[in-house]
Amino acid sequence: MSEAPSERTRVRRLPERGVYDPATVASILDEALICHVAYTDADGRPRVIPTIHARISETLYLHGSRASQTQRSMRDGTEVAVAITLIDGIRFARSMFEHSMNYRSVVVYGTPEEVTDADELRTVFRAITDHVAEGRSADARMPTDDELRQTSFVKITLDEASAKVSVGQAIDIDSDHQLDVWAGILPLATVPGEPIVDPLLREGIATPSYVTDWKRPGRA
Amino acid sequence: MSEAPSERTRVRRLPERGVYDPATVASILDEALICHVAYTDADGRPRVIPTIHARISETLYLHGSRASQTQRSMRDGTEVAVAITLIDGIRFARSMFEHSMNYRSVVVYGTPEEVTDADELRTVFRAITDHVAEGRSADARMPTDDELRQTSFVKITLDEASAKVSVGQAIDIDSDHQLDVWAGILPLATVPGEPIVDPLLREGIATPSYVTDWKRPGRA
């Protein structure tokens, strides 16, 4: 385990699961489709919303509409905590107490900065599009100037990011091993179904391979 | 659409997607394996963590260890915002701008109350166990008094809960329909793999049907 980048980032519970290396953090951010952004509103109350993200190098970009309350708060320099969580399986223990999940998660703290440069906005649009399906940005129409104006991206650095990774079988207490109770892991994955073609699609356009063979980066 | 139970709960963005009926909220809470809990820490900073939950009637229970900082804060009467998000698919539009996700999400606001009654704690243990796999609580060993003492459950009512449901194809602007770009929905689902039996499992214990036929409530 490497050193935590800040006191707040240090994984307090079950510290053997805390991992801070940038490659692990990056792989979790890249595999997850969405993240949850928490902030404190003007009344001092906690808020949390799911949103789409993309990572470019050591920067996390968060997507939103210019009109959304969360993006307004973030543009105003509100500190955020961002959670990214991948569920890899259910860990069935013999005791209820030891039941748990196998997961990989990241929390990022930071104060977002608005993306205002038009070239950077276009780069982020491409990254967000490729984040959901690698290769899509080569096909989809780039945003117009008006669409750029309607969109708000904010960015935070990954300076204060930490990951937790929980793998393996549950560890029951010795006396529980004699129980007639099944124990093991049920792996879980996010899996695509059959594409549902837009009924308004022009004839002669084949479903692209990034849809028919969709998978997350790093997954088989 | 029914009426929002409070001003804060009202869905501001894309209000046509806001749904407040308790049955929709309940079905999303029951299907989701985890939730994300946001709160403001003692320094006034936002925090967010993933955790396991269960719903019993109009109450949401959140699980944690007695030692965790989040559960300590929640036992101290900190207000929370809880997000529960199910991703149903990727919505491929012809323009990058109209790309989106099909999802069902709930946000619950409230001030958690600690569960202290031993009978209620046992009921919640069963509910959390059955939440991850319906029927498991009949097999798994109930918690000992010592395990109950090490566990912290908090509860919040669903009085301030709202759901957002986003379904259907992307709606591109008319001029984009002439583009040579595929459009449609790629459905996504959480799917189980092959169970990995604990190598320490006693011989002669079959894998139960709630593992081999695992699915979420309400899903085929």
Overview of this protein structure:
The structure is a homodimer of 220-residue chains. Chain A is of the alpha+beta class and 220 residues long. The first copy, chain A, has a single domain, classed as Pnp Oxidase, Chain A (Roll), CATH 2.30.110.10. Chain A is built from five helices and eleven strands; from the N terminus they run βαβββαβββααββββα. The longest helix of chain A is centred in the middle third of the chain and has 15 residues. Chain A is globular. Strand 10 of chain A pairs antiparallel with strand 11 of chain B.
Which CATH-level-2 architecture of chain A? Roll
Number of strands of chain A: 11
Q: Percent helix among the residues of chain A?
A: 10-25%
> Assembly state here?
homodimer
Percent of sequence in beta strands of chain A: 35-45%
Average pLDDT of chain A = 90
Could you state the CATH homologous superfamily of chain A?
Electron Transport, Fmn-binding Protein, Chain A
Gross geometry of chain A: globular
CATH topology of chain A: Pnp Oxidase, Chain A
How many domains in all of chain A?
A: 1
Largest sheet of chain A: 10 strands, antiparallel
